[in-house]
Write a structure and sequence with these properties.
Length: about 180
């Protein structure tokens, strides 16, 4: 979303200029977490019935003392410009732009069971051959994969799961017109 991207960019620029980038990133991660985990909070922010001064008071009660003054000022600006409904997307975009700024590649690996240290190291070594900069490894457990893993780097995906291989076999049998020779 263009609005979210522009506000996130403006906040990154401000944070870099004031040398508070790391602090503001932590703040925006907290904001995103609050937005992701509190449907009522997001409903309230998106409501046109709730007045701007009430939203500013809510930001103050929820975030004051937990985030920097820069972030509080940004949240208040969002409310005064009536852009608070985009807060969740702005926080997400901020994190993506932060990673681009810092040259961090997010790599997601899904596996049937939690990765052990050896598997984690092998995956990181594999990824480091094609990615530059720092690697942010996000691990997820998905028992439905049965075994193997699904690796996602940016918009590329490598699916080495047992689930996919079984589905490929099933599809192969379904498409096969194999008729046994009974002679």
């Amino acid at each position: 979303m263009i609005v979210a991207s522009r506000y996130a960019k403006a906040l990154i620029d401000l944070a870099v200029e004031t040398k508070q980038l790391e602090e503001v990133r932590k703040d925006m991660q907290l904001v995103k977490n609050v937005c992701d985990n509190n449907r009522e909070f997001m409903t309230l922010l998106q409501s046109p019935v709730v007045k701007t001064d009430k939203k500013v008071a809510i930001f103050k009660s929820v975030f004051e003392g937990k985030v920097s003054k820069t972030t509080i000022a940004f949240l208040n600006l969002m409310a005064s410009k009536r852009r608070e409904a985009f807060l969740q997307e702005i926080a997400s975009d901020f994190d993506e732009q932060y990673k681009q700024f810092k040259n961090i590649t997010t790599v997601e690996v899904k596996s049937a069971i939690a990765l052990d240290d050896k598997a984690r190291k092998q995956i990181l070594d594999l990824v480091k051959t094609s990615a530059t900069g720092e690697i942010d490894l996000v691990e997820k457990v998905d028992p439905s994969l049965i075994g193997g893993f699904v690796l996602t780097i940016n918009d590329k995906q490598v699916d080495q799961s047992v689930k996919r291989k079984l589905n490929d076999l099933k599809k192969g049998f379904a498409d096969n017109t194999f008729v046994p020779n009974l002679n």
